[in-house]
Amino acid sequence: MLLTILGCGASSRPFDTIFVVTIDTLRADHLGCYGYPRPVSPFIDSMAARGVRFERVVSSSSHTGPAHASLFTSHHPASHRVLVNGVDLQDGIPTMAGLLAAADFETAAFLSVDFLRSVTHGFDVVDADTRGERGHRRAESTVDAALEWLAGREIPRRAFVWVHLFDVHQTQRRHRVARPGLEARMEEDAKERAAILQPHWTQQHGLTAARLRRLLARINRYDAQLSYVDAELRRLVETADAGGRRNLWIVTSDHGEGLGDHGYPGHGKYLYQAQLEVPLIFYGGDGWPPGAAVDDMVRHVDVLPTVLELAGVAPPSDAGFEGRSLVRLLESPSAAAGVRYAFSQRRPPNRPRLDAGWPPGLVIAAQSERYKYILSTDREDEFYDLEADPRELNNLIGEEIAAKDELLRWMLRKYEAMAANPLAPGGEIEEEYLEELKALGYL
């Protein structure tokens, strides 16, 4: 039975179409609505201004496949066992698409990379044609495919649509910026940044002036790709909303990107905030949810329970979701309804990554509103006061702080429970890590 929810000024009519848009590798702090000074995301910023923006959102992983699997199952990688890209999510695990399909939603996924087919359980249509596109298709092609499907579908049925855009990930390529005059401004800004940052980066990371210029050029390309994606998202939203249906848009990312933080430009190697803090915006063209920002910490695993409640679909009684619905925060953003802790897990490194200098072993992290603990089985643990040190530069692992031990105990209990009782079979890696934690005295 459909819920007549959204009583805070919203229509009791349920949404006709629920869209989840994942912008791959987008860290929250490169959006204007999250404080970024460059005007590279005007449309996303406008969605955030008219909808609800969650200020602090924690991903379950800094790797694409595991993060998306967590988003769509409300379980962490140690439970669903999608630990690396391309690993199939096992049958029998409830997913967002599967649960909505069972409630008579049409379900369709439009992907910019083919390997994400591995987490598309429950979608009636999966469009991931990357032929001729050098491994991924550009946002305009993915948006074209989604709009073509929307134009040809039967109107009476409700729909759930996932659109995945990969361009921001591809910082080795250069797209022209979709904003007049912005590209030249970005180049000038990079020169100014280089002059300011050179002494710090030389001291902290040993970067030469030439390496710093290359890093800033990479940031420029990152922002240019984001500007392009922002324009394509505008085309998707405005075209879909022009059809007169009541649409809900959920915009997020799978994980962030280092962009030089901790001397690292990428994402999968670490679990710092640059890799884990992602945007989360709920937007409806009819004025619900109303414009607001939510300060409470929430997680990717909270999105599935939220979507089900908004759709009026009851979760299976035995689903055991790790997340919880955010509808209360959508209706009353100032309500103290966030979560106490968030858990994240790094992908296991393979031989090429180990050869490239990745730390071996297990790396997991837990954070509260203020503190964060990163456990590594093969290097020193890390503990940060995120309130005083948001860039995680001052490791307090040797300090006597009561919250440190409390956070470590919670994280170990959480991981042990998930690794010992997974949702899917297999998992030799997790069993190996459990034994390693025991040998190190953690368990």
Describe this structure as you would to a colleague.
The chain has 2 domains: 324 residues, 3-Layer(aba) Sandwich (Alkaline Phosphatase, subunit A), CATH 3.40.720.10; 92 residues, 2-Layer Sandwich (Arylsulfatase, C-terminal domain), CATH 3.30.1120. Helix content is 35%, strand content 15%. The strands form 2 sheets. Strands 4-3-5-1-6-7-2-8 form an 8-stranded mixed β-sheet, sandwiched between helices. It has a 4-stranded antiparallel β-sheet with strand order 9-10-11-12, covered by helices on one side. The N terminus is likely disordered.
User: How would you spell out the order of helices and strands?
Assistant: EHEHHHEEHEHHEHEEHHEHEEEHH
Number of domains: 2
Mean pLDDT: 88
CATH homologous superfamily caption of the largest domain: Alkaline Phosphatase, subunit A
- The CATH architecture name of the largest domain reads 3-Layer(aba) Sandwich
Query: In which order are the strands of the major sheet placed?
Result: 4-3-5-1-6-7-2-8
Number of helices in the DSSP assignment: 13
**CATH level 3 topology of the largest domain:** Alkaline Phosphatase, subunit A
Unreliable stretches: 1-11
What structural class do you assign from the helix and strand content?
alpha/beta
Largest sheet: 8 strands, mixed
Could you tell me the number of beta strands? 12
CATH class of the largest domain: Alpha Beta
What is the terminal separation in angstroms?
Answer: 45 Å
Rg computed from alpha carbons, rounded to a whole number of angstroms: 21 Å
**Helicity range of the residues?**
25-40%
Question: Globular, elongated, flat, extended or rod-shaped: what is the shape?
Answer: globular
In terms of DSSP E residues, the strand content is 15-25%
